[in-house]
Write a structure and sequence with these properties.
By secondary structure, this protein is of the alpha/beta class. The chain is built from three helices and five strands; from the N terminus they run βαβββαβα.
Length: about 120
């Protein structure tokens, strides 16, 4: 990925805070969603800290991210989206989480009922 075509999150946050005219297009990329940032006439892809295009698993997560940065409006382009999971399922982790749950048990309050008196 060409670094001239990407922007990283800290720089994007600074631009939004500086009241720059920043727009965003959420585009379906395979099974995930990418953010295309519009800075005036220039368009850049949101990148990870390692320089690859950052992908989000759902529209909910990317929407929350964009709103958290301070961009309140964005467009959505679903033309290249393919339904499915971004990451493969982890049944081993799901089972481990199920086993780690504890059940709530009712504790005795310590009051004697009227029937025992």
């Amino acid at each position: 990925m060409n670094e001239l075509n990407t922007i990283k999150e800290p720089i994007l946050r600074e631009l939004v805070q500086a009241s720059a005219q920043v727009g965003a297009v959420i585009s379906g990329e395979g099974n995930g969603f990418a953010v295309l940032v519009r800075l005036g006439e220039v368009e850049k892809n949101l990148a990870t800290s390692r320089g690859k295009i950052r992908l989000f698993a759902s529209l909910d997560t990317v929407g929350a991210f964009i709103q958290g940065i301070g961009i309140s409006r964005f467009e959505v382009d679903m033309s290249r989206h393919q339904p499915g999971r971004l990451r493969k399922a982890r049944p081993d982790r799901a089972e481990a989480m199920r086993l780690s749950r504890t059940r709530m048990q009712q504790q005795l309050l310590g009051f004697e009922s009227d029937e025992k008196r």
